[in-house]
Amino acid sequence: MQPVEERLKTLFLAGLDGDAACYREFLDKLSGHLRGFLRKRLFHLQDHIEDIVQETLLAVHNGRHTYRSDQPLTAWLHAIARYKLMDFFRSRARHEALNEPLDDYLEIFASSDAEPADAKRDIGKLLEQLPDKQRLPILHVKLQGLSVTQTAQLTGLSESAVKVGVHRGLKALAAKIRGAL
Amino acid sequence: MKTQDLVALLASEAAPVDRRIMSKRFSQAMLLGALGALLLMMACFGLRPDLGRVASTFLFWFKLAFPLALAAASLWTCTRLSRPGVAIGWANLALAAPVAIVWITAIPLVLLTPASQRVALLLGHTWRVCPFAIALLSIPAFIMVFWAIKGLAPTRLRLAGAAGGLLAGAMATIVYCLHCPEMGVPFWAIWYLLGMLIPTLAGALLGPRWLRW
Question: ipTM of this predicted complex?
Answer without folding.
Answer: 0.86
